[in-house]
């Protein structure tokens, strides 16, 4: 059992304690209950008071003997008998339940509104009848005098189902687009419906006419409330014959008197979450309002806080048992713990069926700090990778659950110690150091700088000294940050070290320093104004605008200077990185492979080449000249010219020469009469472009030229083998 105190009001959480995992067998559960002391000391107010996954709504019968809860998964309804402190029955349903109500004093008549627009009726033996409404429903109320069920939902109409006649009656037409909640006053049976537009429409069931409209959206906006968006009505509850409480989707609760259109009190939860449950306590004049995060109890006269409950899980619905034992259901967590039961001893004695709680709260008051499963640790797949335990997936040592696994806490501690064997030693040394420093703090010690954020500490000390040295102070000075326990960790933990070389700090530093300077100037100005009041001359403009413009210019210049420095440092850093990369780069030779071509097929004749190497130079020249690959010619100035031509190229030149000789027969005689001869090789090169045909020429001599002219010789042979004269 966990005990907490809010505003000196003790709250006893009966469901707090160890929970047994679902996968354990009944035998192991009994063994743990016998051996484990914490489980033995756990208080289970109602046996099996839990849901497999999530509980959506909870109700208490009018005779106070039965507690009914609807939840999932699978959709079901469970009924608990408080006289037997155990589960009475459980029924599974076809779909999830939006809300339900108990029409009789006991559990014999139940009505369920489902998500799929079905309305299901249950009797004492089980399912009785099922029907359907035209639109999706959100809430309903039962009018006992006429046996009418009023359904509201995603429609502007209020559907009426008469249970005595067994048929639908004419609907009530409202001015709203959608209706969220509804309620009927138990005294004068006034029907109220909360709309999406933030209005409450009141109808008289006797004449089926609308009698009043209350605009709650406009009244919820006050000086002490924080409203974001259009406040829609999310909860309604009548209090007596004249009182009504309205909850909005923006987190406000408005208390009205039906005789006035203005609220008596507006209470804000300051969470911005929709209010879904409102209850009243008549003896102490308290109002209980709940959203998905917190349950607040406050006085309805002045709104002063009485107590509050803020569980670790979300809250879906709240029900009270004479405002002493409080049940609230929660959303899904890592495991399905029991539905929380909370006892307020300050509200009065416990009910008759649990009168033993008064003795338990006095004898077994304790403050344990335990997790959901103290003997098991929930780990994710990433945690298993870090610990090196991925090979255990699928083994009995890991129990798959949601996005992770449950493993034995002893195994987890052993693996954690093996992964980081010095973690405990470091933790122990740190604790010893903290103890020593705490003992030294009691002695008289000199002022010294902290180990973390020394520059910031010096700056704060200087500001404190300037503040103390001021001549006059109108009010009491604020506590220094250095002596404030809230900021103590900032000067002890190295994780809070301010990196002054970071880009963010350097860009924000001009702004922060300028703001601090303006703040100090403002303080000095207020002090000076307190000492003496000087009035400006009429018609003389103030110099504040000029000073502010100068400050803005200096701030812009500082920002530009910081940006230039950052860009220069970034450029220098990139240069150093490139230089380091050049140093680390090692030059390696690159090899290329030539493709086989027609000109290089002769290179494969290795035997012929080796034979040519053994012969003399003269014999090789004669052999090349006879084969037509070598051409030796004399120039006009007496130099020699040697031309080397491949066989394939020479064949192409012969074909071109034959074609040209047929066309230029008449030009032979003219060429012979001139006394000069233009060699065939030179002409071919002139017309074919030389090297453009892929020819390989090697020219040796003292005088090299593109064109070769020679004197006519009778013994000269052309490429066709015919002589020329």
Task: Summarize the SSE layout with pairings.
Elements: E1 2-6, E2 9-13, H1 26-35, H2 37-40, E3 54-60, E4 66-72, E5 76-81, E6 86-92, E7 97-102, E8 110-114, E9 118-122, E10 127-132, E11 137-143, E12 148-153, E13 157-162, E14 167-173, E15 179-184, E16 191-195, E17 199-204, E18 209-215, H3 216-219, E19 233-239, E20 243-248, E21 252-257, E22 265-268, E23 277-281, E24 286-290, E25 295-299, E26 305-309, E27 315-321, E28 325-330, E29 341-344, H4 357-363, E30 376-380, H5 381-387, E31 398-401, E32 404-408, H6 409-419, H7 423-440, H8 454-468, H9 503-531, H10 544-584, H11 606-614, H12 617-626, E33 630-634, E34 640-644, H13 647-663, H14 666-673, E35 677-678, H15 680-688, E36 709-710
GO biological process, one term: maturation of SSU-rRNA from tricistronic rRNA transcript (SSU-rRNA, 5.8S rRNA, LSU-rRNA)
Keywords: Nucleus, Repeat, WD repeat
Domain NUC153: 484-510
